[in-house]
Automatic annotation (TrEMBL):
Segments of skewed composition (Basic and acidic residues): 1-13
Pfam hit, one: Nse4-Nse3_bdg
Protein name, per record: Non-structural maintenance of chromosomes element 4
Subcellular location per the Swiss-Prot or TrEMBL entry: Nucleus
Coiled coil: none
Stretches the record annotates as Disordered: 1-54
Keywords: DNA damage, DNA recombination, DNA repair, Nucleus
Source organism of this protein record: Notothenia coriiceps (black rockcod)
Quaternary context: Component of the SMC5-SMC6 complex.
Annotated GO CC locations: nucleus; Smc5-Smc6 complex
């Protein structure tokens, strides 16, 4: 194992863990409230069966999106959302770069499909025009303000003000 030199010439083992994890490794060993020890967590992270299962699920999702692309483009179909929710669940267990690469591949496939679905929706219906919407909203508010003023003046005239 390679070692890094400390300030006093003493060699210390190199650590590749994130800073927050290294600090916890250097603590006094009190893991109160933690059910799993570091060895158990390391075993879970290195378990080839679990890693293989995660990669397999990612591949199934990618294949499902590619095979059902036309169905997922339907405006009434929520399968794309379900796939993204499943991917979010899987991502919580991603620990290695191979799994992260599959997650990225799924993200590319689903984002392309989402873009295509959004453009299809815009082509089918009237596109949203923010200027027209704002003008319409202002006109409605203006009518309500005028109506409120008229009602207030009638009320104040009626009460003898």
């Amino acid at each position: 194992m390679k070692r890094a030199r400390g300030g006093d010439g003493e060699e210390a083992p190199r650590q590749n863990a994130p800073a927050g994890q290294r600090k916890s490794d250097q603590s006094d060993g009190d893991n109160s409230g933690c059910d799993l020890g570091q060895a158990d967590m390391q075993d879970e992270d290195d378990n080839p069966g679990i890693r293989r299962e995660i990669r397999s699920k990612y591949r199934e999702l990618i294949q499902s999106v590619q095979q059902n692309r036309e169905d997922m483009l339907s405006p009434s179909n929520n399968k794309l959302t379900e796939v993204l929710e499943e991917a979010n669940k899987l991502f919580k267990d991603v620990r290695q770069s191979r799994e992260a690469a599959l997650d990225a591949q799924l993200l590319v496939v689903t984002s392309d499909l989402g873009k295509e679905k959004a453009s299809q929706l815009a082509a089918e219906g009237a596109a949203f025009d923010p200027t027209a919407f704002t003008e319409h909203l202002v006109s409605i508010l203006f009518i309500h303000v005028i109506t409120a003023k008229v009602q207030f003046s009638r009320f104040s005239d009626h009460n003898g003000s």
